[in-house]
Amino acid sequence: MSFFRRTTGVQTDPAQLVRDLEQCRGNTQYYLQTMNGLLYALKEFSFDIAEIKAEEFKKRIDEFGKKLVSGDDIRSISDRFAHDKEYILAFIAKEKDYLRDREGELRNIIELLTKGLEALTGANEQFNAHIYEGNLRLERMLNLEDLRKIKESLKVEVEQMKTAIKEKQEKDAQQREHLASHVKGLQVDLAKAQHASMTDGLTGAFNRLALDQHLNRLVERCSMSWEPFSLLLCDIDDFKRINDLLGHQVGDRVLMALVQHCKSLVRKDDMVARYGGEEFVIILPGASLRQAVKKAKTLCNIVAQARYIIDNERPEEKLGFTVSIGVSLLRRTDTAQAVVERADKAMYHAKKGGKNGVASERDTH
């Protein structure tokens, strides 16, 4: 019995296949690096503008970047790109509209300043013309032979010049005051807008956007110059129960009270921010883990001892609440997310220990 093997005219070289596969892997790695570079450039090209939700846009870009290197099949990646492409284009259009609106506002400011300068220039031209005419009159006086007439004419001319100079000074002062008033108003509006974009409207603490930006800056700075910081994550115990039993207005007052306690304990360079819901973050630059835990325990005790009147008509009825706090310390290899996650894990460890307490990242090992 004989066996037959089908052969083709093309011989496959296993070694060449291996080389081709290696080249494909290299090309794939290069394309992934290129794509990540483009995604990073796209993120950096977007402005940090709260009104257009720039932080959400950057997170979506990061998520897509992770999807690229996740090893998922090409169909899954293609579907994700098709979905995100519309979102990216919509964000770009929104950013263009925002910048166009701000450009219009800037043009109005420039127009205001230009008109002010034109008014000053026009006044200067009138003043200069008046002075020039005065000089011509002085020249004509020199031709007078009567000394008495020359003296009288000079007296009149001097008075006219003094009047012209005084009027010019008054007009200049009015113009400067007018422009200064408009510029000051614009500065106040800008400062209010910047403050509002970075502040939690209810509690007055910094908002999540401000927190994320500040955290990322601190972590990036530490990658160049080691300046560690500690982070406290505070959560109000049984906050849902307070809301359900006493209403959201009382719940809001509890949030504001906690922020006031936090602010009373922090230094000038520390940060108090609302992380979300009833969770707040305190950043302590330069503080060791031990110092941060001590600060957290102080805050925990102050909050637990405080009592608040619920209703002014029933002052005898008072409310108390407690907090659980997790503490972490920045490590050299940390991302902003990592240092928050360890504090979050420590905070839940404190809750499991009976609430109204403090736990550090070391307690979770």
What does this structure look like?
This protein is 67% helix and 10% strand. It starts with 13 loop residues before the first helix and ends in a 5-residue tail after the last strand. Strands 2-3-1-6-7 form a five-stranded mixed beta sheet, with helices on both faces. Strands 4-5 form a two-stranded antiparallel sheet. The chain is flat, with a radius of gyration of 35 Å. By secondary structure, the chain is of the alpha+beta class. The model has no long low-confidence stretch (mean pLDDT 81). The protein folds into two domains: 18-197, no CATH class; 208-364, Reverse transcriptase/Diguanylate cyclase domain (Alpha-Beta Plaits), CATH 3.30.70. Strand 6 (323-329), helix 9 and strand 7 form a beta-alpha-beta unit. It has nine helices and seven strands, in the order αααααβααββαβββαβ.
Spans with pLDDT under 50 lasting ≥5 residues? none
Average predicted local confidence, pLDDT = 81
What is the number of beta strands?
7
Helix and strand run:
HHHHHEHHEEHEEEHE
Structural class, from helix and strand content?
alpha+beta
Q: Domains counted in the coordinates: how many?
A: 2
Residues in helices, as a percent range: 55-70%
Structure annotation, total helices: 9
Estimated radius of gyration: 35 Å
First CA to last CA: what distance? 71 Å
Main pleated-sheet profile:
5 strands, mixed
Strand content: 5-15%
* Adjacency order of strands in the biggest sheet: 2-3-1-6-7
Morphology call: flat
